[in-house]
Amino acid sequence: MPQKQLTAPDILARKGNLTREGVDKISVLTAYDYPTALLAEEAGADVLLVGDSLGMVCLGLPDTLGVTMADMLHHTKAVCRAAKRALVVADMPFLSYQTSIAEAVANAGRFLQEAGARAVKLEGGAEFAPHVRAMLSAGIPVMGHLGLTPQQVAVLGGFKAQGKTARAARALLSHARALAEAGCFALVLEAVPAEVAARITQEVGIPTIGIGAGPDCDGQVLVLHDVLGLCPGMRPSFVKQYADLWTPAREALAAYCQEVREGSFPAAAHTRRMAPAELAEFAARSEYEDA
Ligand code: KIV
After folding, report:
1. Residue-wise pLDDT tens digits, 47-101
2. Is 51 a pocket residue for ligand 1 (Cβ < 6 Å)?
């Protein structure tokens, strides 16, 4: 039987479920292409987030500022082809929504119309509440994103935890309320103290999805490549790496290169041969005789 694909209202409804039915938190993984989406889908992720982190994870960029609408559409299409049950949320890239409400709606709409996503995510607080309302009126569900918002990296002066002072924490709470009131169906909280995330989770009526925001959020999101150990180099301390796939992958590729160099690949098992009769005829006649 075909599986029902989760919708933004399904994810929103999980907020209530948490108190009635015990722990049933929302699992979110990033996905950037067909195989990563298929992996996350088969693993049971509720939401596949086509994050603009793809700039750093897949495109080798230093941050997310260079990621374009074209990049995001291209990758979102591939993810949507793999998603059967999970809700696909596409990240609005830098300058695709900040410039005007009209542009925000038009660009968000492209993710649904051209790529097949069923929701978008944008970074920022109350200043984007009008954008969220306009998107919602156009039929586009929106996930918010507060705390460390990587598209602000130039203003923040780096990838720094947010909401560490009482004043900053109160500001985050008020932005979270504004986004919930504007109609966001869920809210990512990135790199904020656990106490702040817990209070926001308690006080807003939409699910919070934490990344580096402690255990009290309604769900968690991690970058798939971090979970699988597919990203060499530094990892933020809040990441839990569940596997190291980089090392065996590099070893497998090195073995292939070595076997090619020494001529042991392809072996008989990987080689197709002609049927003996065809081979005899092939050996006996030249191509000019067929013509
Ligand atoms: O771009 C991204 O992957 C994200 C998540 C880390 C929340 O925004």
Report:
1. 999 999 999 999 999 999 999 999 999 999 999 999 999 999 999 999 999 999 9
2. yes
**Measured from the CB, is residue 221 less than 6 Å from ligand 1?**
yes
Q: Is residue 1 in some structural domain?
A: no
Chain-centroid distance, C-alpha 173:
25
In a domain, 2, yes or no: no
Q: How far apart are CA 45 and CA 17, in angstroms?
A: 17
Q: 258 and 231 in one domain?
A: no
| Number of domains within the chain | 2
Pocket test for ligand 1, best of 28, 48, 53, 63 (most atoms within 8 A of CB): 53
**Index of the ligand 1 atom closest to the CA of residue 52:** 1
What is the residue with the minimal CA distance to atom 5 of ligand 1? 51
Please give the residue range of the domain that contains residue 25.
8-244
Q: Is the pTM of this model over 0.70?
A: yes
Distances (CA, A) of 166 to 192, 204, 210, 242, 246: 12, 18, 19, 34, 40
**For 161-202, what is each residue's pLDDT tens digit?**
888 999 999 999 999 999 999 999 999 999 999 999 999 999
260 shares a domain with 202: no
* 81 and 58 assigned to the same domain: yes
Whether residues 182 and 259 share a domain: the answer is no
> Does ligand 1 have an atom closer than 6 angstroms to the CB of 107?
no
pLDDT at 120: 98
The answer, yes or no, to whether any atom of ligand 1 lies below 6 A from the CB of 218, is: no
Asked, as a colleague might, if the bond just before 207 is cis with ω within 30 of 0, I would say no
Say if residue 128 is in the same domain as residue 265. Answer: no
With respect to residue 25, please indicate whether it lies within any of the assigned structural domains.
yes
Helix (H, G, I), strand (E, B) or coil at 147: strand
Atom of ligand 1 nearest to the CA of 53: 1
Would you call 21 a catalytic residue per the annotation?
no
